[in-house]
Write the structure tokens for this entry.
Amino acid sequence: MFKNVMVYRIGEGFAPTLADVQAALEPIQFVECGASQEKSIGWVPPRGEAHGPLVESVAGQWIMKLMIESKAVPGNVVRRKADERIAEIEAATGRKPGKKEKRDLMDEVLLTLLPQAFARQSSVLVWMDLDNRRLVLNAGSQGKADEVMSALMNVMGGLSVSLIQTVTSPQAAMTQWLLAPTPDEWPADLTVERETVLKSTGEDAASVRFTRHHLANDDVRKHVLEGKLPTQLALSWDGRVAFVLTETLQLKKVQYLDGVMDESGTDKKEDRFDADMALSTGLLAPLIDSLIEALGGEMELGAAGTDALTANPVQKTVIPTVLAGGSDDGDPPF
């Protein structure tokens, strides 16, 4: 299920078959880190079955999963071991190692310690909606999303993507909704819930967080009018999905509200993946449509926003035309 959402626009002209995508992913399947390897990235069967397909089609939506495994050795441990080696060299030779030799010693120490380090794994679901030309990542940070896009860059030819930009920036819209005198001023299907983070744009960067707090009140409006702008705002859509919208158009802490999961209609383990993916994508697709509409519609590439609080410039990644061979906080928002 998607707990975080980052939405990209797929460029024109990209129309692979399911078999094309499967063939592209196969050479980059996930393999666990070797003894002296810091990181390993690769594709795994999204259904979780050994030797299963690397791309699944559920209700016309294509689902993939990228696995990321990394080992981390604390920097202070590496420095301490390297200092011990340096002290041994000085005692034995009477000379101090130079900068390059010290860097080489640090690398040697790291390689020595990596086999003892615990490996941590995380995964990112990737949803490709070709009908709506959208690529959706279950990523809670831009850094994790960048890793997914780099992995896609290695396998999929002819794909170009850009982060979706809206005519009204999320921050400007969230500001309007918090200043609204009544809930009647909120967009259709969207309800402001009980969590927000407000940050000042001044040098002091003052911030205030409201949690489980009724936001349609003069206290919140006073903070906004004094110059603290929302960077996060808890919302719900159609009484079915709750989430936290960020100033960069990310959806975090996505929750499917009471009774929604019963709509999947199956308790069988073997059917759970299909039911969950069909329900999740079936809810998120119209939610994304409603949110984009509430933000004034999607901005065309190269166009300027109509408000002063526009989001970051359009980020675009163009993936070569040759197929390559070769955790976030889960607390409820309100």
Remarks:
- The chain has a mean pLDDT of 84.
- DSSP finds seven helices and 13 strands in the chain.
- The first strand starts at residue 6 and ends at 10.
